[in-house]
């Protein structure tokens, strides 16, 4: 075995790429030159990933004659010093990371207990918790069959809590504008398809064609928004069920399973009062379905032509649901099969070309299948086919990656840096198997490679919009990988690794240290979730108060005639509860800046149908005025305000024709 070189090569590749990554942001003028080419966050991130893989491959190839044996790396003093440096470096990193957590856009961490109490006290308490936890793990043990029911009970309890917390139909409950904006962006896309509208240049959805998945279910519930949120809660819960099943198969320690289960639910139960619609469960469900599928076929050794095709079929559905995430998962699926070939003891260049060609064919099938389904739907509605550009909205939009929503990545110690390092470790574990190690390749290594490549791809969403809660899109993958690696740390503790370090190799010592760091992070997230859930349960109360939303809908009924023409933020949500049709179908107003021409179509719809009255709200009119002043003026000249309805911080308005 030549395991020591994996650690050394991985560390060398990581140090060089970390310097490159920070240098691109901090060197004067360099960041500006990269920004001139596009979104500097994504460009630098992409170059960093490619550079790491090239460096790791190159150094591994150059050190092919490496032999593990007596030397500096295997001296007890060097192993202890390396382990101390590795573990001690975590304290300043995470101290800065946590202390500056509240500075990032999109965070709600100022409500967390570790920010409402002195940071030094919280650090000491956590270090004490770590000491007690590892002491108990080292000295206490359960019999093989005992305690398994506790794991399954934990999963079941968390599934119930997740479903309850995700069912939040009162989108105004927290009184924050962002919640109803994101809810509208999502529901408007589904409502358009429910009403039978085809996908056109100006009547489309953001981040995929998920509306097609809801077409039949929404018909069964007459388009009711409350039932739709119930479906979303079910989908979000399904994502967690998949994650728990992967955790059960991937991690052998029952203690780690329980801790990881608590850590997995942190974003929904602990971090937020509700959930971020464009992430939960939109960008989470297919990565988890995909990961569960991969786990089953790899563990059961069912990998063959049919299961590979099944993976690409799942990728096709993922692209249909969310274009960006689906494309990235498709690349990771192709990467898995190429990696498996390269990890074989013997392979021929002809086999490699054939495998690459087969995976390219699979990726084309997945994309073409999703594209074809959307256009079949359009043709069934007697509408022209979408262009590829419209199908990929907003990925090819000029302003998607460089508009006013662009944020600079933090260059001080931040959670995303740890996440990237974690997934690069998983990639390195997969690549290391390409270099002639004669031991049998474990299925977990292939799964870790699949998980890491997919997660690094999905992390592009955060890089494009580095708002703190956007890290949620890869949080489940991060916890699963951390829990898997944490097993090595727990084994290191159980075997009294520090005292017996002389008998372990440098590789085993470093692997144990990395595992200890991962175990500490899983424990921290699990503890934070337990501490925060009770506090956030009060925040969630208004979200579940559907009576307020229903009462408001009845106020509308008392004044506004049924099926009055309507448009704007959360208008479709109100109308759906009354089983009315808005008769106006546009791009969602939350994202109207992406397709401002949709407002001209709105004007044409009102003119063509000679709408006698209109129902909308104040925020929507502000968006209209900002994005198309000319047609907004036409609206003001054509309609007069008849009535107002106040609900939380929004004012709905009923207009009649002059």
Quick gist of this model?
It comes from Blautia intestinihominis. This protein is mainly alpha-helical. It is built from 28 helices and four strands.
Structure description:
With 658 residues, this protein is mainly α. The chain folds into 2 domains: 69-170 and 206-541, no CATH class; 546-657. The protein has 28 helices and 4 strands. A 4-stranded mixed β-sheet has the order 1-2-4-3. The radius of gyration is 27 Å and the shape is globular. The mean pLDDT is 88.
Q: Which class do the helix and strand fractions yield?
A: mainly alpha
Number of helices: 28
The total count of strands amounts to 4
The biggest beta sheet reads: 4 strands, mixed
> What share of the residues does DSSP label as strand, in percent?
under 5%
Radius of gyration: 27 Å
Shape: globular
Number of structurally distinct domains: 2
Low-confidence stretches: none
Strand order of the largest sheet: 1-2-4-3
Q: Averaging pLDDT over every residue, what do you get?
A: 88
What structural keywords apply?
single chain; 658 residues; mainly alpha; 2 domains; 4-stranded mixed sheet; 28 helices; 4 strands
Helix and strand arrangement:
Elements: H1 3-26, H2 30-35, H3 40-62, H4 76-88, H5 90-99, H6 113-116, H7 119-139, H8 148-166, H9 177-194, H10 215-220, H11 225-250, H12 254-264, H13 266-271, H14 285-299, H15 305-321, H16 323-342, H17 349-380, H18 388-391, H19 415-432, H20 443-458, H21 460-464, H22 475-494, H23 506-539, H24 546-559, E1 565-566, H25 571-578, H26 598-608, E2 613-617, H27 618-627, H28 629-638, E3 639-647, E4 650-657
Helix pairs in contact: 1-3, 1-23, 3-19, 4-23, 8-11, 8-12, 9-25, 11-12, 11-14, 11-22, 12-22, 12-23, 14-15, 14-20, 15-16, 15-17, 16-17, 16-20, 19-20, 22-23, 24-25, 27-28
């Amino acid at each position: 075995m030549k395991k020591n070189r994996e650690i050394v090569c991985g560390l060398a590749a990581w140090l060089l790429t970390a310097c490159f990554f920070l240098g691109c942001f901090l060197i004067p003028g360099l960041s500006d030159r990269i920004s001139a080419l596009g979104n500097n966050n994504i460009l630098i991130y992409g170059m960093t990933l490619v550079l790491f893989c090239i460096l790791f491959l190159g150094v591994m190839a150059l050190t092919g004659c490496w032999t593990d044996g007596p030397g500096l790396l295997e001296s007890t003093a060097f192993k202890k010093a390396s382990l101390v440096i590795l573990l001690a470096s975590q304290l300043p990193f995470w101290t800065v990371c946590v202390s500056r957590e509240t500075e990032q856009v999109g965070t709600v961490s100022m409500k967390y207990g570790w920010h409402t109490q002195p940071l030094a006290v919280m650090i000491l308490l956590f270090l004490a918790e770590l000491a007690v936890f590892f002491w108990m793990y080292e000295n206490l043990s359960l019999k093989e069959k005992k305690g398994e029911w506790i794991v399954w009970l934990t999963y079941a309890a968390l599934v119930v809590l997740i479903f309850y917390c995700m069912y939040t139909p009162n989108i105004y409950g927290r009184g924050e504008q962002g919640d109803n904006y994101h809810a509208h962006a999502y529901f408007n896309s589904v409502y358009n398809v429910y009403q039978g509208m085809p996908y056109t240049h100006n009547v489309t959805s953001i981040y995929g064609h998920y509306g097609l998945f809801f077409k039949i279910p929404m018909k069964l519930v007459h388009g009711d928004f409350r039932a739709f949120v119930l479906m979303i809660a079910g989908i979000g819960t399904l994502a967690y069920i998949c994650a728990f099943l992967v955790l059960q198969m991937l991690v052998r320690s029952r203690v780690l399973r329980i801790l990881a289960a608590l850590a997995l639910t942190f974003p929904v139960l602990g971090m937020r009062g509700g959930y971020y619609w464009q992430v939960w469960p939109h960008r989470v469900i297919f990565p988890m379905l995909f990961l569960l599928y991969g786990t089953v076929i790899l563990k059961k050794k069912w990998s063959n032509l049919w299961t590979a095709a099944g993976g690409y079929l799942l990728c096709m559905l993922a692209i249909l649901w969310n274009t960006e995430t689906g494309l990235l998962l498709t690349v990771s699926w192709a990467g898995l099969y190429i990696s498996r070939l390269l990890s074989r003891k013997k392979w021929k260049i002809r086999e490699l070309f054939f495998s690459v060609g087969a995976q390219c064919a699979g990726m084309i099938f997945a994309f073409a299948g999703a594209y074809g389904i959307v256009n079949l739907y359009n043709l069934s509605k007697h509408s022209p086919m979408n262009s590829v550009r419209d199908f990929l909205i907003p990925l090819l939009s000029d302003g998607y990656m460089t508009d006013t929503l662009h944020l600079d990545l933090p260059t001080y110690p931040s959670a995303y840096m740890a996440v990237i390092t974690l997934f690069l470790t998983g990639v390195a574990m997969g690549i290391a198997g390409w270099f002639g190690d004669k031991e049998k390749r474990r299925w977990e290594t292939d799964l870790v490679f699949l998980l890491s490549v997919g997660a690094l791809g999905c992390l592009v969403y955060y890089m494009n919009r580095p708002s703190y809660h956007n890290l949620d899109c890869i949080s489940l993958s991060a916890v699963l990988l951390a829990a898997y690696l944490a097993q090595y740390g727990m084994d290191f503790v159980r075997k009294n690794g520090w005292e017996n370090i002389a008998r372990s190799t440098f590789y085993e010592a470093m692997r144990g240290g990395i595992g200890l760091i991962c175990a500490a992070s899983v424990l921290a997230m699990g503890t934070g979730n337990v501490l925060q859930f009770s506090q956030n349960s009060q925040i969630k109360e208004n979200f579940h108060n559907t009576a307020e939303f229903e009462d408001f809908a009845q106020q509308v009924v008392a004044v506004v005639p049924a099926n009055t023409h309507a448009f704007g933020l959360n208008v479709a949500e109100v109308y759906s509860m009354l089983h009315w049709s808005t008769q106006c179908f546009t791009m969602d107003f939350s994202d109207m800046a992406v397709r401002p021409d949709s407002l001209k179509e709105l004007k044409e719809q009102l003119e063509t149908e000679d709408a006698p009255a209109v129902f909308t709200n104040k925020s929507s009119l502000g968006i209209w005025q900002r994005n198309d002043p000319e047609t907004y003026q036409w609206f003001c000249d054509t309609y007069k305000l008849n009535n107002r309805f106040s609900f939380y911080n929004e004012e709905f308005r009923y207009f009649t024709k002059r």
